[in-house]
Design a protein that fits this description.
The protein is mostly helical and 296 residues long. It has helices spanning 24-61, 67-76, 239-243, 268-280, and strands at 255-258, 263-266.
């Protein structure tokens, strides 16, 4: 070995070992990111602005082309859509999961098969809206207006519908597992074959509602108004559940569906016999008198 030969200096800046040198490709990628990122953010900002403009045009000028795409874009960006005015629009099959649509207008809107899981629609108006087969699991619909809306075969499992307005609403064959309908107004609502397992209907107004053939296992009916409610063919409806409610003596339990007339026919004699049996079943009586003052 030549002791007079000086050791060769490593490539790169002094103090950095060859093992820690940055690969040239990394510098190239970093440079590209610095060039492309501002352009992406500018494009994204313009895309969101265009989506917002589309919704405004739909709300105020009824020009609703590509409205579903605009809504989905804003929802994915976690953009608030509160106070939207989207009545009479076609939003079938839209993906609006987790959307914030509180205090919005959807009157007469078509939302069939729409995906609204975990959506926030509190205090919104969906009068006569079409939500058949819609996915509304865990949706927030407290104090919403759904009068005469169509929700047949929709999925409302664990949804929050407390204090909502559902007069005359169509909820036939609807999944309502653990739904919160406390203090909701369901007068004359249609719930034939509805699945109400562990649903909360406490303090709800069920006056003249049609709950024929509905499923009531562990459903909470405490202080609900059952004046002339139709329970013909109801499943897993216990005497203790009924007696926890108000005006259960004035509801209907025995009868049949008459196809020719298109209506439920009460068997007065059988119905009275069932009521007499309920009254004689002292074991199912509530320990404390039921407070029905809110319905007086």
């Amino acid at each position: 070995m030549n002791l007079n030969q000086s050791p060769s200096a490593p490539d790169g800046p002094p103090g950095i070992s060859p093992q820690r040198r940055t690969h040239p490709l990394t510098w190239i990628l970093a440079s590209l990111l610095l060039i492309l990122l501002p352009g992406y953010f500018l494009w994204r900002s313009r895309q969101l602005s265009a989506a917002q403009q589309l919704i405004q045009d739909c709300s105020f000028h009824h020009h609703c082309g590509h409205i579903i795409s605009a809504l989905e874009t804003l929802v994915k960006a976690n953009h608030s859509l509160q106070f939207s005015r989207l009545s009479n629009t076609h939003l079938a099959q839209a993906h609006l999961e987790h959307a914030h649509l509180e205090n919005s207008l959807f009157n007469h809107t078509h939302l069939e098969h729409a995906h609204l899981q975990h959506a926030h629609l509190d205090s919104s108006s969906l009068f006569l809206a079409h939500l058949e087969h819609a996915y509304l699991q865990h949706a927030h619909l407290a104090k919403s207006h759904l009068e005469h809306a169509h929700l047949e075969k929709s999925h409302l499992d664990q949804a929050q519908l407390n204090s909502s307005h559902l007069q005359g609403t169509h909820l036939e064959d609807t999944h309502l597992y653990q739904v919160n309908l406390a203090q909701a107004n369901l007068a004359r609502a249609h719930l034939v074959h509805a699945y109400l397992y562990r649903a909360d209907l406490s303090d709800a107004n069920l006056e003249r509602a049609n709950l024929a053939s509905a499923y009531f296992h562990r459903t909470n009916l405490e202080r609900a108004n059952l004046f002339r409610t139709n329970f013909i063919g109801a499943q897993h409806l216990s005497p203790s559940q009924l007696k926890s409610a108000c005006y259960w003596e004035l509801a209907f339990y025995q009868g049949h569906w008459e196809r020719k007339r298109g209506k439920w026919i009460v068997n007065e004699k059988a119905n009275q016999l069932y009521l007499d049996q309920l009254k004689q079943d002292k074991a199912s009586d509530p320990q404390e008198p039921v407070d029905c003052s809110r319905w007086e």
